[in-house]
Structures are given as C-alpha cells and as structure tokens.
Design goal:
The chain is mostly beta strands and 399 residues long. It contains 3 helices and 26 strands. It is 5% helix and 38% strand. The strands form 6 sheets. The chain has a 6-stranded mixed beta sheet, with no helix packed on it. A 4-stranded antiparallel beta sheet has the order 1-2-6-5, with no helix packed on it.
Length: 399
C-alpha cells in the first residue's frame, strides 16, 4: 500500500494590538491590521502615529473655552481641524514651535465636536467630545433688518432677550464693517422695554451709499449671571439711502424735508400743545417705522380718553407714541399754533407727500421752545442727542 505524505503546514502566530482609549484623551491613529500586515523589518517601515492631547474631553466638556490640541510625540503638527456636528468649523492656528494648536473661537454649549490632528510625516488621529447643554439661552433682536436701505441717522441696534452682565466680552464679538471706514462706537443702555441694548452709532450721520455689515459672532459666548449662553451667530447688512433730513420747527409751526442740502418740501404743521404732557419732544430723533393707517388711542400713552382715531400716513418717532401723521381735524392750527396731543400733524396731502418721500432711519430734527424736553436716549433712537465723547464712554470697552 502506498502511503500518502501530507504536506507540512507551517503555522504563523499574529498578535493584534488594540488602540487604548485614554482618559486624558491622548490620541493615536488606528492600526490597519489584517492580511498584508508586515512584521519584523517591514513593521519598522510603517508610518508613525500622531499622538496628541485635547483640552476638552468627554460628554460634558465645559463650553465657552477655546480648544487646544497639544502634540505629545513627534516633531511638529501639520494640520488640525475641529468640526461640529452641523458641519461648522472652529478655525485656529498652530503655534510657532509647531507643538500646539488653539482655536480662534470658543466652543458652544450642547455641541458635539470631532478633532482630527496630523503631525508631519505621521498618520492622523481623531477624537470626539461634547459640551454641556446650556441652562439658559440668550437671543437677540437686531435693527435695521437684513438687505434693507435706510436713512442716514439709523443706528445699528441690538436688544437682548436676557440680561448681559459680560458686556465687554459680548461687545468684543460684534464686528461692524463699512464700505468707507466709517468711524463709530458701540454704546450700552437699557432699552425702553427694560431689556439690555447696545447700539453702534457713527460719529456723524452716515454718508449716502455706505454699505454696512454686522457680524455678531456670539456662538459660545456667555452673557453672564442670569443671561445664559449664545448658541448661534447673527449677521445683518444694509445700505444707507438718500441724504435727507426732516426739520421740525415747533415755534414757527413748519416742517421741511431737506435732501442733499436743498429744501424739497416746506409745509405748515401743528405739534404738541406746550405746557404739559401733550407737548412734543425736541431733539434729533429717528424715523423708526412707516405704519400707514393705524388706530391711535390716548389711554395707551397715559392721556386718558382724549382721543381714539384712525390716523393716516403715520410715521413713528418714539416708543412713547410721538408720530408725524395726517391730522385734518387740526387744520385750523396748521402753521399758527401747536394744539395736538404730542404728534406732528399735517394736512392729508402734505402728510402723504412726506410719508412717500421719507425713509426709515431719516432724522427728524425737532427744535423750538414749545417742547416738554429732549427725547431720551432709549425712547426710540435718541442716540444723536448725546455728544460723541459721551457716546463713546457708553462702550463697555472704553479706555
């Protein structure tokens, strides 16, 4: 009988080494083990792994801080990216010695991030962390609206839903860019609504044609105690329209529309009855909105049951209820006496002309002695009633 010789099978032992997960978030690239993995001298030729540590770790990392990635082994960092779950990126810069990378912006609350770091000549390493959810979120309302054209006196205005204690930190994240390097400053106040508000006002009226952009990079900024975190950025842009001013002379009972230094329209009017609460405000005010035909009721402004009327061509000048509008019932006083309940009244035809011609943001410069005082800073946009030096002093970054 013939014996069949079985071939000798040589067994090779393969050791698989898993990548350890370190509590300190030391990162290594995953090994590509498997059927073609080398050994001995071949293993020595494999690309080394990037090893770094990350300042933020785990599922409850502290928000509002920059991310720092530090090289623990190797020569220099080649590239670092930090992305959130929505595809946003935290940009940053590698240090001069190449040993670390720090993000330019801070992390936002309740956000998952993925870090990828690569050292020169090494494979990349990845890690993930998630920031703790904010206890309270702050939001803003901005004016003017996006892609609008406004008059030469309108400030950039931001009203916050919740209190802002960290005013300087918030202000540092508000960047205004203009097409002609307009000089201006932020100024903080309490809005007429009682909320915190900050406005950016030019030193002088805007120049017609100026293009303005606001980038409010607030995502990841803490408002401070009682205010909560901002969890998004905001952006708006607008263009300055025609160079025109409405001049209201209380003592001579005239209203003039002046465009590019030339009087376009000069009409008789009757303003607020002097000597009490019905008098008009003087000062440089700003047209807040063109509201058309609205119901005006005296009890809403603390004047009892003096009036309840549907009023045409209504142009709001203050939060407290001062308007310019049509007032045909007061025609006997146009050009001769101030007999209204605080507003600037004109004939239907003249009010329509002014209403059609003015832009939101146009200044109404109200002068004369027949007034109850100067419009307050926060009663609409009274910014221009403050000197430039005093306005600059309202910045949280002054000095």
């Amino acid at each position: 009988m013939t014996r069949t010789r079985r071939p000798h099978i040589r067994l090779r032992t393969v050791t698989l080494t898993g990548t350890a997960v370190l509590a300190a978030a030391a990162l290594t690239a995953c090994n590509g083990g498997g059927a073609g993995a080398g050994s001995g001298s071949d293993a020595a030729k494999e690309t080394p792994q990037t090893k770094v540590s990350v300042s933020a770790t785990g599922k409850q990392a502290k928000a509002g801080e920059p991310v720092k990635v530090s090289l623990t082994e190797g020569d220099k960092l080649d590239e670092v990216t930090v992305k959130d779950a929505k595809g946003g990126t935290l940009t940053g810069q590698i240090s001069a010695d190449g040993k670390s990378w720090t993000s330019a912006r801070t992390t936002s609350p309740g956000t998952s991030y993925t870090v990828e770091a690569k050292a020169a000549g090494a494979t990349a390493a990845k890690a993930e962390f998630t920031t703790a959810v904010a206890d309270k979120v702050n939001k803003v309302t901005m004016a003017p609206g996006k892609n609008t054209t406004i008059g030469i006196a309108h400030p950039l205005s931001i009203v916050f839903d919740n209190p802002v204690k960290n005013k300087a930190d918030v202000e540092k994240h508000l960047k205004v860019t203009t097409s002609n390097d307009t000089e201006g400053s932020w100024g903080w106040m309490t809005d007429y609504s009682g909320k915190d508000r900050v406005d950016w006002r030019p030193k002088e009226y805007w120049k017609s044609g100026t293009k303005v952009t606001l980038a409010a990079d607030l995502n990841g900024v803490d408002s401070g105690k009682g205010g909560g975190w901002f969890v998004r950025d905001y952006k708006t842009n607008f263009t300055i329209g025609k160079n025109q001013v409405v001049k209201v002379d209380l003592d001579n009972h005239r209203l003039k529309l002046v465009r590019d230094g030339e009087t376009v329209k000069d009409v008789p009017m009757s303003a607020g009855t002097p000597g009490g609460d019905k008098a008009s405000w003087r000062g440089k005010t700003v047209l807040m909105s063109k509201e058309g035909t609205i119901n005006m009721r005296s009890e809403t402004v603390g004047l009892g049951d003096a009036y309840d009327k549907m009023v045409d061509y209504s142009m709001r000048l203050t939060w407290s209820g001062m308007y310019a509008h049509a007032a045909p019932w007061n025609a006997g006083y146009f050009g001769s006496a101030n007999k209204s309940s605080g507003c600037v009244g004109m004939s239907d035809a003249n009010a329509k002309f002014i209403y059609d011609a003015v832009q939101v943001g146009d200044p109404f410069e109200v002068t004369g002695s027949d007034a109850k005082g100067t419009q307050a800073l926060n009663n609409g946009y009274g910014n221009w009633n403050v000197s430039w030096a005093d306005w600059q002093a309202k910045s949280a970054l002054k000095g």
